[in-house]
Amino acid sequence: MVFSALWHATTHTSGILAYFLSSPPPASIIMETNNDTTTLCDVLQQSTYRIAPDIAEQITRAKVAGICEALNLAADGLVGLVYGEYFVLGFMEWGLVYPLENDLGRVAVVQGYNVSYKHCITIERLVEKASVPTIVGVPELI
Predict the structure, then answer these.
(1) Using one digit for the tens of pLDDT, what is the confidence trace for 8-23?
(2) Taking a C-beta distance cutoff of 8 angstroms, is the pair 14, 51 a contact?
(3) Which residues contact residue 6 at a Cβ distance below 8 angstroms, ignoring those fewer than 6 apart?
(4) Rounded to two decimals, what is the model's pTM?
(5) How big is the chain by its Cα radius of gyration, in Å?
């Protein structure tokens, strides 16, 4: 458990296998966009966990009427985290929870069936609302 937390803190990946099986991140300039609508697959690929596109597609593959089922998402470690009035998407590993964030430090916020990185929501802003999040189930997402 300690090794997993240390691995995540130093490499910002979900696990050793994900690190070795994923393709290296492209060397490019990170640009911020105000696009607040995106798919869960895109959010997972853009996260600091460096989830490979194939793995992100596998996580989001089981769909009913175009929506990823909550049970399948929870089985892959996705959870909902509540910081005050913010409902964000996170990962749970070995009992530790981490909000999903991108390279710019933006957090994946859930609104209805949609999840996207909001340009004004960062980890610092979440911690101002609550130092420890309330862990709830992940909703069904697009």
Answers:
(1) 667 666 666 666 665 5
(2) yes
(3) none
(4) 0.73
(5) 14
Angle at 9 between CA 25 and CA 7, to 5 degrees: 80
| Joined tokens for residue 135 | 């862990």
DSSP line for the chain: -HHHHHHHHHH-SS-HHHHHHSPPPP-------------HHHHHHHBTT---HHHHHHHT--EETTEE-HHHHHHTTEEEEEETTEEEEEEEETTEEEE-BBTTSEEEEEETTEEEEEEEEEHHHHHHH-SSPEEEPPPPB-
Confidence band, pLDDT 50/70/90 cuts, at residue 142: confident
CA distance readout (Å), 35 to 11, 31, 131 = 27, 11, 28
Name, in order, each residue with C-beta under 8 angstroms of 58's C-beta and a sequence gap of 6 or more: none
Cβ neighbours of residue 123 under 8 Å, at least 6 residues apart? 99, 101, 105, 107
Averaged pLDDT score across all residues of the chain = 82
